């Protein structure tokens, strides 16, 4: 079996990499198990020094790594550069704060001494997607490694170059043998690995279908799992919002990374007072996007990462139009080399349409018109997904009250949804469970052990 890396802009093959055979997989598992014992006993200061060293290499190699991201999955070069910076940030964040986060937590009881100690589980399997090929990995690896756990990475099959580059970074930074390894294996092989006794936990960012299979495998083996799955985030604009600002941020929130983001705003829920004004401004912003080579600074609309993703997105758009959605802008693949899709705005989206119920993983926005503010909250929560949400109001107290009632893992008032190393990140409902980043993120990779001494 071979993994093929294809440039989404030129459709040219970049490289083909051979998958691991069973002997290579066994070798990696054995090395990770050996590293597990060593790394758990390594002083925290040495573990965090590794993260600092990795962060330094991310920054010094940023130009090369960003080019790799852009050529392998099509991200705008400016966004790829920002992704590398964010990876360095999360390494620095845990290097600085891990000591306090992992310190024994003393609790006053009738014992002479009682506490909670945060100790590593062992080897974690990280199953990661292609859309943020560095950030998704580091969001998991930085806290897991700081907590004392080795990591085995099973990356998406269309970004083998990124997967191997990340492994190389850790090796150059001085990581012990077996501590961080990339496994070039198929998805079904990764699911089978969950049952291996040397794997002590699994973290997956990916589709709902993949999450169900991995969660079932982890449950059958009675192992912890962290799932960050799909999202169809609501972007709610209330009557007193600054509509011009909301529309400007809405375009960024929808079309960032070519719309290929779990936390991208996807369902734009509008009250009657501002709906037409918002749609006009949003349409203008969508039509101003410039498709082209993502390596060029003037380009603002990149291609989709794979041809099948473009085909699936177009099928969802066509089905929604057939059920009564109104096409405001776009609505078709672009007739040019590369897997480009026009920035698309669909109005009058309603129940029964793919644009209402399903995740649209690409540059397509679904406009949903609410009767009033109460109906807007109902529509925002009328989804199987619950990753993030955004609400816009010039009354911050009103916006916060609305955000508290949104059924999601993270809600933002007058801003787009985004991840931050300082804050826990994750979803509810079909968007998954568990948290990464922040205090909860590192403790999710730990056994919270109660100790009582008499």
Return the CATH class of the largest domain: Alpha Beta
Beginning-to-end CA distance, first to last residue: 58 Å
CATH superfamily of the largest domain: Aldehyde Dehydrogenase, Chain A, domain 1
Q: Give the spatial strand order of the biggest sheet.
A: 12-13-14-11-10-16-17
Largest sheet: 7 strands, mixed
Residue windows where pLDDT falls under 50 for at least 5 positions: none
Q: What is the number of helices?
A: 15
How many strands? 20
Which class best fits the helix and strand makeup? alpha/beta
Strand content: 15-25%
InterPro entries: Ald_DH/histidinol_DH, Ald_DH_C, Ald_DH_CS_CYS, Ald_DH_N, Aldehyde_DH_dom, ALDH_GabD1-like, GABD/Sad-like
Keywords: NADP, Oxidoreductase
Family: Belongs to the aldehyde dehydrogenase family.
EC number: 1.2.1.16
Description:
Helix content is about 45%, strand content about 20%. It contains 15 helices and 20 strands. The chain starts with a strand and ends with a strand. The model has no long low-confidence stretch (mean pLDDT about 100). The protein has two domains: about 250 residues, Aldehyde Dehydrogenase, Chain A, domain 1 (3-Layer(aba) Sandwich), CATH 3.40.605; about 180 residues, Aldehyde Dehydrogenase, Chain A, domain 2, CATH 3.40.309.10. The strands form five sheets. The protein has a seven-stranded mixed β-sheet with strand order 12-13-14-11-10-16-17, with helices on both faces. Strands 7-6-5-8-9-19 form a six-stranded mixed β-sheet, with helices on both faces. By secondary structure, it is an alpha/beta fold. A hairpin with a 6-residue loop joins β1 and β2. α3 packs across α4 and α4 runs parallel beside α5. Keywords: NADP, Oxidoreductase. It is an enzyme of class 1 (oxidoreductase). It comes from Thiorhodovibrio winogradskyi. One of its GO terms (molecular function) is succinate-semialdehyde dehydrogenase [NAD(P)+] activity. Its EC number is 1.2.1.16.
């Amino acid at each position: 079996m071979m993994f093929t890396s294809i440039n989404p802009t030129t459709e040219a093959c970049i490289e083909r990499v051979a998958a691991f055979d069973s002997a290579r997989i066994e070798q990696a598992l054995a090395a990770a198990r050996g590293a597990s014992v060593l790394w758990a006993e390594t002083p925290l200061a040495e573990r965090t020094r590794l993260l600092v060293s990795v962060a330094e290499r991310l920054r010094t190699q940023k130009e090369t790594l960003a080019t790799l991201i852009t050529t392998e999955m099509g991200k705008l070069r400016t966004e790829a550069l920002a992704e590398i910076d964010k990876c360095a940030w999360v390494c620095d964040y845990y290097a600085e704060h891990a000591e306090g986060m992992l310190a024994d937590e003393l609790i006053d009881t009738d014992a002479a001494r009682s506490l909670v100690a945060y100790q590593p589980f062992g080897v974690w399997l990280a199953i990661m997607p292609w859309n943020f090929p560095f950030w998704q990995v580091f969001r998991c690896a930085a806290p897991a490694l700081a907590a004392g756990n080795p990591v085995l990475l099973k990356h998406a099959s269309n970004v083998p170059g990124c997967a191997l580059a990340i492994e190389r970074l850790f090796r150059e930074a001085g990581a012990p043998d077996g501590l961080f390894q990339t496994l070039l294996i198929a998805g079904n092989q990764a699911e089978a690995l969950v049952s291996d006794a040397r794997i002590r936990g699994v973290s997956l960012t990916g589709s709902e279908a993949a999450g169900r299979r991995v969660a079932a495998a982890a449950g059958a083996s009675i192992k912890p799992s962290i799932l960050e799955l799909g999202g169809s985030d609501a972007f709610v604009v209330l009557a007193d919002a600054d509509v011009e600002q909301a529309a400007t941020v809405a375009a960024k929130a929808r079309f960032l990374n070519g719309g290929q983001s779990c936390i991208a705003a996807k369902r734009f829920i509008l009250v009657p007072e501002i709906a037409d004004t918002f749609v006009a401004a949003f349409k203008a912003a969508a039509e101003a996007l410039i498709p082209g080579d993502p390596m060029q600074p003037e380009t603002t609309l990149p291609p989709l990462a794979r041809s099948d993703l473009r085909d699936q997105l177009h099928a969802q758009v066509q089905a929604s139009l057939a059920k009564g959605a109104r096409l405001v802008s776009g609505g078709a693949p672009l007739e040019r080399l590369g897997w480009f899709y026009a920035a698309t705005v669909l109005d009058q989206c309603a129940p029964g349409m793919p644009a209402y119920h399903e995740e649209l993983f690409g540059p397509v926005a679904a406009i949903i018109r609410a009767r009033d503010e109460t109906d807007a909250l109902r529509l925002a929560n009328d989804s199987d997904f619950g990753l993030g949400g955004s609400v816009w109001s010039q009354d911050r107290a009103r916006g916060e009250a609305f955000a508290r009632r949104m059924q999601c893992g993270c809600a933002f008032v007058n801003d787009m949804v985004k991840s931050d190393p300082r804050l826990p990140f994750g979803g509810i409902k079909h968007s998954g469970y568990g948290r990464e980043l922040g205090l909860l993120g590192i403790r999710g990779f730990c056994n919270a052990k109660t100790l009582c001494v008499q």
